[in-house]
Amino acid sequence: xxxxxxxxxxxxxxxxxxxxxxxxxxxxxxxxxxxxxxxxxxxxxxxxxxxxxxxxxxxxxxxxxxxxxxxxxxxxxxxxxxxxxxxxxxxxxxxxxxxxxxxxxxxxxxxxxxxxxxxxxxxxxxxxxxxxxxxxxxxxxxxxxxxxxxxxxxxxxxxxxxxxxxxxxxxxxxxxxxxxxxxxxxxxxxxxxxxxxxxxxxxxxxxxxxxxxxxxxxxxxxxxxxxxxxxxxxxxxxxxx
Length: 241
Prior knowledge:
This protein is α/β, with parallel strands linked by helices. Helices cover 41% and strands 21% of the residues. The strands form three sheets. Strands 2-1-3-4-5 form a five-stranded parallel sheet, sandwiched between helices. Strands 6-7-8-9 form a four-stranded antiparallel sheet, with helices on one face. Strands 10-12-11 form a three-stranded antiparallel sheet.
């Protein structure tokens, strides 16, 4: 039971456990679930990245020594995508490994063998810290002249000191949100289709249609070249704003 001075953690927070040793993953899942958190397991690096993309967990417990892709590669890609909190789990107890993890962007580092209750305590602490650090700002995205208020589902463009409303459909708002979360990252049509379009809409050319309409709406407010097409790959937010 948190004290009044503690920021409570959402009871529905989802933790992705990326760990190739099933027994360890099951122990961690049991302890986390006992604390009211939801869990999902990935047994290798590629599976971890796929589940991170599709499920958008609130935190990742990431083992370093995993098959297909190691924890360093997974952490690097997660950081390329955004700011999901990551706690590294590893048998490597060298300062250089800890420094590498922190340099790439890990939020914490736990060395095996560990006490599962301590891991849970660290998970809760990181989730509380992230909530305090982000606060309302996490619900307000700004890139260049574009601003999205995620709580009120409002999009605006700042021009000449004035704020202009950007009237978007739900799908256009989702696409713009996804692109603005990582403005330099190129997203494939498949990724945008999976994350932004209604279930059952499976045609990649549908993405092009929504992008085109979104681009025209931004152009009417003086923003050109956004979203930017990257030939043969997909789209990114672009430098137009």
